[in-house]
Amino acid sequence: MRKILSLFAVSSVLVLLSACASGPNAITNTQGPVGSGDNTKIGNIYVQNVVIVKGEANTGTVVATISNSGNVEDQLVNVLVENPAPKAIIFNPTNEISIPAKSFINLGFNTESPHVDLIEFSPRQSSFVKIKFVFKEAGIVDQTVLVVPNEGIYTNSNPISQAPKSAAEEGRQIIAGSLSGVSVTVLNGTRRSGFARSTGDYFELQGMKIVDIADAENKDTAQTQILYAPGNLAKAEALAKLLTVGILVEDPNLTAANIVVTLGNDAPFNLF
């Protein structure tokens, strides 16, 4: 996945980085795919041939050659993409990608390369997007890069098709599966603007039917309450597990909804 330059090659890279690294014939241009990517240098880090390769199902991956002419290792610790922004950015294999001293990496070049994948990312083909590379030692690099198809010299970049699920997310989805079709009213018992609406949207994504979304009379509810119609205890318990909070109360008068959730200040604000 990573290559180590010989002493001679390192010397060549250092000379070219200091003299003509931005030129089209710099030796680092030969390390990764040579396309129409952007090139930038900061400190000892040189980021070149940067493009975003668009995959299937609104995904993409960042392709670049990143060289380190310094005597100490650096790490790529974050990548930020704007206009449009992906819903998630996944580093593989770790949360920090090492850039060895006096060496380089090919990012996203093939399945053996480290990857920075973009999930739910849907720019127009051949459009340009803003991207920032954040390095632990060198700092931040800003670029505007081209979105290219997954073909030609980028055929092997292989953007992942979807974000990997954590164990917690998988467990929540299993719980939510048992709530498919359940009718729910969501009341906001807090002073958080839009809280009931965002929670209701999340419930709908899990397959629940939203009967109503409104404000509760008490805007300072401490604990979330889940009212359920007779015979719906198991569903109420599943919903409480999904929310991670909730006092369960059976209500024989419920008719329009199987469950009424009054969100309290203990409820998680961001369920997505």
Q: What fraction, in percent, of the residue positions are helical?
A: 10-25%
| N to C succession of SSEs | HEEEEEEEEEEHEHEEHEE
* Average predicted confidence as pLDDT: 81
CATH topology of the largest domain: Immunoglobulin-like
Label the overall shape.
Answer: elongated
How far the N terminus sits from the C terminus, by CA atoms, comes to: 34 Å
Summarize this structure briefly.
The protein has two domains: 151 residues, Sandwich (Immunoglobulin-like); 97 residues, Alpha-Beta Plaits (2-Layer Sandwich). It contains four helices and 15 strands.
Summarize the structure in words:
The structure is a single chain. By secondary structure, the chain is an alpha+beta fold. The protein folds into 2 domains: 7-157, Sandwich (Immunoglobulin-like); 167-263, Alpha-Beta Plaits, CATH 3.30.70. Helix content is 17%, strand content 36%. Strands 1, 2, 3, 4, 5, 6, 7, 8, 9 and 10 form a 10-stranded mixed beta sheet that branches. It has a 5-stranded mixed beta sheet with strand order 12-11-15-13-14, with helices on one face.
Protein traits:
disordered N terminus; 5-stranded mixed β-sheet; 2 domains; elongated; Immunoglobulin-like; alpha+beta; 17% helix; 36% strand
